[in-house]
Amino acid sequence: MNDMKHQILFSFLLSMMLLSFTTSCEKEEAEQTTEKNDNQNVSPAPIIVTVDAGGKADGGHRFTKIDDSNFYIDDIKYTASDGNLSVSGYNETLFSGEAIIISQLNYVGREMQVKEIVEYAFSYCTPLTSVTIPSSVTSIGEYAFSDCEGLTSVIISKGVTSIGKCAFRYCTRLTYVTIPECVASIESGAFSGCSGLSSITVADGNPTYDSRDNCNAIIETKSNILIAGCKNTTIPSSVTSIGDDAFSGCTGLTSVTLPSSVTSIGECAFSRCTRLTSVTIPSSVTSIGGGALAYCTCLSSVTIPEGVTSIGGSAFQGCTGLTSVTIPEGVTSIGGSAFQGCTGLTSVTIPLSVTSIGKYVFSSLISVTINSNSIMATSYNSFNYSSISFIFGNQVKNYIIGEGVTSIGDFVFQNCTSVTSVTIPSSVTRIGNYAFSGCEGLTDVYCYAETVPSTSANYVVFEPIYMNATLHVPASAIDAYKTTAPWSDFGSIVAIE
Hints:
single chain, seven-stranded parallel beta sheet, alpha/beta, Leucine-rich repeat, LRR (right-handed beta-alpha superhelix), 4 helices, ten-stranded mixed beta sheet
């Protein structure tokens, strides 16, 4: 019985010791992980390996000669060329875990620095868990680490200037990357398919042109520099423009704040960022490209800054959650389908500065305020033989024409069958031929002009709605309207209250 008690006591004490040891190890591992994450952007100390004539490496490193130009150091393959080394592969039989790339090899009287990681060097290396790239390396080749499914950590030291096409493609467990300031070129798909990537930080600096895409900033390279799953993105003040497709399809991206250095947003730059709820566009931006924020279905409001002069076609198309948009004075053109499919957007104000507006710009509006003299004074041919309903959709019930508009052109509102109310300001002096003809649902026209606006000689302006609509005019001018055709044909003419 005593032996059994001793055995139970011994087992209990042993369990407590193991638990204490495990907890201590987990704590130490957590501390190491934190330290590692905190130093992602710190270039490690150079690793210089010296190998003697007998092939023995110092510092505990393992050296294996393949031939006069190729060597394994710690199961990473290096190739000598033109007095330097490149990382060209790995020992597929022995390699696993962390890849720490050396900076320099001293061997048989030669001092060779590691300058590049060649294309496909580690591609499909599933045992690879982390990699540290030294500051001696200037380029990472195409597909260098593609499909490394076990890769969770990458340290890219200051010194790297280019990251090749699909360099880290489908590294699905990679969660964080810092791209140092000296990187001048990131080619297409560099991080595409990195579904676990939650944050990319692009360090501030002065990136140079990418000749392939004619870019003037890191962010400008095409095709998924930032990929699906990216939530937090730091864009440095050196960036002057957001290029085509730069953030396209970043389905995890929830908010974007652009620095004041940015002057343009390229085509489809943030398109299909389906979780994006907030975009801050600085006043430095002058143009928003076609499809820039198309199909960002969670975006609820957008304030376009005063510096913007053009909104590209389909810029906000399909933003079904958009309920509010502010278009400032200064915008001169709005491209076709710019807000098409924005089913939550029910009202909009078009500023006086707009001189050009494409077809199918809006589709679900109920109320429109138009301050643009150019749009209201346009002629039939300007809309390619189409009425204004092709711009704002045929669901609009209320048109408010802003003070400052002086004329309403021929055919502008023709056949807008859904409109029930039109407000004409005191500044309007002329209304063109057939301007409101065919507006069969129109019941109220509010005209604030104290001097009756002139109309075309044939008087076909409001036909055939006169008998069913009420004309609201200033009390001081009511008699003038009652005695002037075609205004006198309204079924009811009353003073504006």
